[in-house]
Amino acid sequence: MVDLKTEFAGLKLKNPIIISSSGLTSSAEKNKRLEEAGAGAVVLKSLFEEQIMQKAKQVNEPIYYPEGGNYLTEHLYAQVLSDYLKLIQESKKHCSIPIIASINCCTNKDWVEFAHKIESAGADAIELNILSIQASPYYECGEFENQHIEILRKVKERVQIPIIMKLGTNLTNPVALINKLRLHGAEGVVLFNRLYQTDIDIDKLEYVSGEILSSPSDLPISLRWISLSSAIISNIDYAASGGVHNADSAIKSILTGASAVEICSVIYKNGVQYIRPMLETIERWMSQKGYESISQFKGLLKAKDINQANAYERTQFLRYFSERE
């Protein structure tokens, strides 16, 4: 009998399919439908640091509200947070699967206080999505990675629920950062978040949005770094994100060491009804291979010799392109 149960960041999931933070998870009703469709957990639509900070700055300009700026700032601050806490509470009321709150942030400032209130509202965990591009000519190597640690440290001071760090691809050494995050209390990491995709309209001579949704071609980078990281740092949980568009990609992610996968684009493309066939295909594959649980094949294909990872990468590149003219 095949059992799809898994554990990620201390959360017990009925299966490894997590719906990632997006408009798909912006209401309790949507989250209930995702649970009914088979999702193992949901990450709520992100609360962006700028949602409060920019509004607060705007209304605090004395030329607009010379006497009421502080009052309006506090009102907006409370209103945005209240709406998010309600989303958590309503989702917990209607769903039995884990509800993971999401904060999309790039600093460790006033928003950190939200974390305690999010925990009090009933969230099962918090995913910190640290989304930022480093392009200053005065940037010191390691500043961005240290910011991750500082944000995590500040939040861990406020909450007891698991903290999951969703990382970007713009890191020199994800393995080293994951190790430091683990030492500072992170229970899980998600590899990787997706930066805004830029494109150019050559007729209008202006920047436009590139492809918003992910594609299967995004998966290999997650497979590479989960394979390497899980081989070295085993006492933290991993989830793959980006390019997980079918059951095969979910299986591949688990084989490299992931406990779960986050999906989004494939649901936008195919609807919530796509979750059940994914799970059924995973079950069939497990039965064919003789696996009764996720743990029996999790990490089966993680990196074997970390010291040879760079040599392997370079020789495979050479092997592939030397055969092509």
From TrEMBL:
Family matches, as Pfam families: DHO_dh (PF01180)
Gene3D superfamilies: Aldolase class I (3.20.20.70)
Biological role stated in the UniProt entry: Involved in pyrimidine base degradation. Catalyzes physiologically the reduction of uracil to 5,6-dihydrouracil (DHU) by using NADH as a specific cosubstrate. It also catalyzes the reverse reaction and the reduction of thymine to 5,6-dihydrothymine (DHT).
Record pathway: Pyrimidine metabolism; UMP biosynthesis via de novo pathway
Enzyme Commission number(s) of this protein: 1.3.1.1
Listed cofactors: FMN
Keywords for this protein: Flavoprotein, FMN, Oxidoreductase, Pyrimidine biosynthesis
Complex formation: Heterotetramer of 2 PreA and 2 PreT subunits.
UniProt keyword annotation of Oxidoreductase present: yes
Domain of life: Bacteria
Alphabetized InterPro entries for the sequence: Aldolase_TIM (IPR013785), Dihydroorotate_DH_1_2 (IPR012135), Dihydroorotate_DH_cat (IPR005720)
Domain Dihydroorotate dehydrogenase catalytic: 4-286
Protein name, per record: dihydrouracil dehydrogenase (NAD(+))
Reactions the enzyme catalyzes: 5,6-dihydrothymine + NAD(+) = thymine + NADH + H(+); 5,6-dihydrouracil + NAD(+) = uracil + NADH + H(+)
